[in-house]
Specification:
The chain is an alpha/beta fold. The chain has ten helices and ten strands. The protein has one domain: TIM Barrel. Helix content is 42%, strand content 15%. The strands form two sheets. Strands 3-4-5-6-7-8-9-10 form an eight-stranded parallel beta barrel, surrounded by five helices.
């Protein structure tokens, strides 16, 4: 399995799990929309995440929750470009990914020094995105989504969600390789066009996707597969998120995309101690 990603000259070692901290510069994200719109607020949140140990910062300027209406590239840039410049000025060594499906956003933010592209659409919304990623030579997070955010949870249908997501990755990876995109991270797309049951089928089948030989990112933090299962609100499911993160690690995930960095760091610590004990006891 590929364990090193070349992020604009910085090598990201994924032989051990890494934490991607979420910074939503949006008014309407499902959990923390509107919290970090001012400079003082987003810098304070970032400083806290850095103290707790993030490895990558993921900046987003548009909500992609179920039912969300698409935001234009111009609106995204209004929300994220100045904060990005400020963050790069304050923390020049920080690895940054941009959560966007617009080529124009990737081009503009790449000029400010981003390192990774995080695209929920797998190139399916803006046909110029993949050529832009290839041109810039940036690592790319390839995520599975059935439908679009506005309609994706309207009765998602699969014959076999695991096989269909696997085949989707095989097909898309072939196209990306033809364009010359070298470093790809896979995201199974929890909550993006899946029923509750289908989300858990994918979570349980994580090991199968390791056959593709690429790092896997788990984006589970506080999602509806947790809070709807438990009849809670997103703010109430940090314990469930931690449990899901440990399962994802056991199933092969090497990046956790999270709202709560300290909890994720503790989950990784417990999982690593468990793995070391298994090795010492020679337990498969």
């Amino acid at each position: 399995m590929q364990t090193t990603i070349n992020a604009s000259g910085q090598l990201l070692d994924l032989s051990s799990p890494k934490i991607m901290g979420i910074l939503n510069l949006t008014p309407d994200s499902f959990y923390d929309g509107g919290r970090y719109l001012g400079e003082e607020a987003y810098l304070r949140q970032l400083e806290q995440m850095l103290q707790q140990g993030i490895d990558i910062l993921d900046i987003g300027g548009a909500s992609t929750k179920p039912g969300a209406v698409a935001v234009s590239a111009e609106e995204e840039l209004k929300r994220i470009l100045e904060p990005l410049k400020r963050i790069r000025q304050e923390f020049p060594e920080l690895l940054i990914s941009i959560d966007s499906y617009w080529a124009k956003v990737i081009e503009a933010t790449a000029a400010e020094g981003i390192h990774i592209v995080n695209d929920i659409s797998a190139g399916g919304i803006d046909p110029e995105l993949w050529p832009m990623v290839a041109k810039l030579g940036l690592p790319y997070i390839l995520m599975h989504m059935q439908g679009q955010p506005e309609t994706m949870q309207n009765q998602p249908q699969y014959t076999s969600v695991v096989l269909e997501v696997y085949d989707f990755f095989v097909e898309r990876l072939g196209a990306l390789r033809q364009l010359g995109v070298k470093d790809v991270i896979l995201d199974l797309g929890f909550g993006f066009g899946k029923t509750l049951e289908q989300n858990y089928q994918l979570l349980a089948a994580g090991q199968a996707f390791k056959q593709l030989g690429l790092p896997i990112l788990a984006g589970i933090s506080r999602k509806s597969m947790l809070y709807k299962l438990l009849d809670r609100q997103p703010a109430e499911v940090l314990p469930a998120t931690t449990a899901a993160h440990i399962i994802a690690l056991e199933e092969g995930a090497r990046i956790l995309r999270v709202h709560d960095v300290e909890a994720a760091r503790q989950a990784i610590g417990v999982w690593q101690a468990y793995q070391e004990a298994k090795q010492e006891l020679k337990i498969n």
